[in-house]
Each structure stands twice: as C-alpha cells, then as structure tokens.
Design a protein that fits this description.
116 residues; 78% helix
Length: 116
C-alpha cells in the first residue's frame, strides 16, 4: 500500500476531529450571547474582559493546532523509523517540537511573565 493511501484517511479523520472540536467549543462561547442581543448589552464589558476573551479563543486554537501537529509528528516519527528515512525523522521531530510549543504556549508566556 502506498504512503498516500495510508495518510489520506488519517488526514481526513484528523480534519473531522479538528472541525468537531472547533464547532463544539465555539458553540459554548456563543451560548453567553443570546439571539436577541442589542448593541447596548455590550456596554457592561470592559476592555480587559474583551482582551481576555480574544486571548482565550486564540490560545484555544493554538492548543487544538498543537495537539493535531503533535499527533501528526508522532505518526510521522513512527512511519519514518519504520521506513528508516532520516530526512522524514527530522521533519517529524520538528512537527513534534512545534506541536508541543503550540500546546504549551499559554504556560510558556505565563512563565516568561508576558501575560498574567
């Protein structure tokens, strides 16, 4: 079986998982805003609350992307080790590193005291 025939179903399943996670989580963000919202309803929000909401959404996307990239890197590492391809092993290692960084980004920024 060629590599493309193996990887295409994995990519499709990963895309479906990613799409379902985004849809589920964003629906929970949308629950706080009712269907009969008026512009004056947002007068009670402060800039800090808005910034916090935007940062939380961005960090959530980074975490989901990190999980997907990390799983992709682990899968690439396993298949590259099996095939004995050193170039693919290096690419898979980079995917694992970037996935871990995306996954841990809020913790890294808090440890560096960039965000509170």
């Amino acid at each position: 079986m060629s590599r493309w025939k193996r990887d295409i179903p994995l990519a499709v399943y990963g895309g479906v998982f990613y799409r379902n996670c985004i849809r589920t989580r964003l629906c929970t963000y949308a629950v706080t805003i009712g269907p009969n919202v008026k512009a004056s309803d947002f007068d009670t929000y402060s800039i800090a609350q808005f910034q916090s909401l935007v940062l939380n959404i961005i960090f959530w996307f980074l975490r989901v992307t990190g999980v997907v990239v990390l799983m992709w890197g682990i899968y690439g590492m396993v298949t590259a080790k099996k095939d004995g391809d050193a170039d693919s092993i290096n690419q898979a290692m980079m995917k694992c590193i970037f996935g871990a960084v995306f996954l841990c980004m809020p913790g890294i920024l808090k440890a560096l005291k960039i965000i509170v």
